[in-house]
Amino acid sequence: xxxxxxxxxxxxxxxxxxxxxxxxxxxxxxxxxxxxxxxxxxxxxxxxxxxxxxxxxxxxxxxxxxxxxxxxxxxxxxxxxxxxxxxxxxxxxxxxxxxxxxxxxxxxxxxxxxxxxxxxxxxxxxxxxxxxxxxxxxxxxxxxxxxxxxxxxxxxxxxxxxxxxxxxxxxxxxxxxxxxxxxxxxxxxxxxxxxxxxxxxxxxxxxxxxxxxxxxxxxxxxxxxxxxxxxxxxxxxxxxxxxxxxxxxxxxxxxxxxxxxxxxxxxxxxxxxxxxxxxxxxxxxxxxxxxxxxxxxxxxxxxxxxxxxxxxxxxxxxxxxxxxxxxxxxxxxxxxxxxxxxxxxxxxxxxxxxxxxxxxxxxxxxxxxxxxxxxxxxxxxxxxxxxxxxxxxxxxxxxxxxxxxxxxxxxxxxxxxxxxxxxxxxxxxxxxxxxxxxxxxxxxxxxxxxxxxxxxxxxxxxxxxxxxxxxxxxxxxxxxxxxxxxxxxxxxxxxxx
Length: 497
Fold this sequence. Notes:
The protein is α+β, with helices and mostly antiparallel strands. It is built from 14 helices and 16 strands. A nine-stranded mixed sheet has the order 3-2-4-7-1-8-11-10-9, with helices on both faces.
C-alpha cells in the first residue's frame, strides 16, 4: 500500500437537544468537535499536524473569517484555509480535495468541521431575542449563497428544494407508470425504512420509528408541502448538531502513533454535476451525474455494487434516494440499509453539514466491521451536484478519479432549450402542486413545446390543481400562455386544453 493513501483517523459528532439548553455558537462547536476528533484518533499531538482546515458554511451565523477564527482558537499552524458555499455535497467534496492533496504529498493532515444551530437560533427568536455571537460578518449575511438560476426560473419562483425535488419525484413515477397513490405509498415505505434506523440512533433529532401511513397521511400536524411530500417526509434543518473529521495518510498516521484500528481508508471518490437548470435536463426522472460519479468512485475502489455493505444515500427527499437507487442499480427490495444515520428528515438535516455526520457514522460502523465497505453520497442544489465516497477499515489500492471524464460523459447528453415565454399547445413533462397551510396554492409544471424546447408554467385553477393530484398529468396536452410580469419576470400560465 502506498503510505500516502488517505484515511480518516478521527471523528466526532454531537446533537444538542432543547432539554440541554441552547447550543454553543458554531465557532465553539467546531472547536469542541475538532478536539474530540483528535482524542478519538488515539494519536499524539494530532491537531498540531493539521495543515488543511476545511470549514462547512453554517446557515445560523455568518462569521467575518471562519477558518481564521477557528485556526486561531485551536492554535493551528499555517496551511490551507477553506470555507464552503452552499451544498449538501460539501463535506464529502472537502474530504475529496484533502485526500487528493494528501495523496499527492502537498498536505499531511486535514480537519473538516461543520456545525448547524438553527434550532437554538429559532428558540432565541421566539424568546424575543436573536443570536449575538462572535465575529459577525459585515454586509449581506448570505453573500455566499449562489444559485445558478435561469431568468424564467426566477420568474416562476423556483427556489425551494421541496418544489424541485417533488417535481423530480413526479417525473420518475410517470416514467415507471405508477399512479400518484401508488407512488406516495412507495415513497412512504422507503422513508419508513429510514425511520427504523433513526429510532435506534441516539443522536437522531427524531429518534422515532414511523409507519408508512404516519408519513404520507395528510393531517393538521402533517400538512402537505409539495405533492407528493408531507411535512414528515422532508428534511429537518432546524437542528443543533456539529461534527468533525480528521484525514491524513497512513504514513503520517504511523508517525503520530494512531492505532490501525482507528483508521478508515477512503477507497474511492468522485463528483459530477447535472445541468443546473432543471428543465434543461433531457430525462427529468433520473440523474446522469449520480450514475457517472458513483461508477467512477466504485471503479477507483475496485468494488462493484454487490461489494458495498453499508450505504448512506443522501435523503433530503424521497426522490434523492430513489434516483440514487436507480443510478446504482439497486432494487427497492434490496435488504441492505440505505442509511447509517436515519436520514435527513429523521436523524436531522443540519444544512450543509449533514454528510459530515454520515461520514463520521460510517467510520464508526466500519471500525466495528473492518471487512465491510461503506458508500456515502451527497446531493446539492436542485438535484444538480453529486458526490460519492467509498470507505473501508481494510486498506486497499487507492486511485484518484478521473472526474473530468465522468463529467464529460454527463455533458455529452447535451441540454434542452428553455423558452421564457410560451403561447400555445404543450405537453406536461413534470410538475408538483404546492400547498400552504390552507390548501393547494399553485402547480409548477415543466412543459415540452412542439419545437422541442421547454418552458415553465404555473397552474392556479382550483379544479385543475385538485385533478393534478388525483390523476397523473405527465404526458397530458395543455395550453400555455404568457401571463403578467411579477417584478421578477414574466410568468407562463397553464390551463387544461
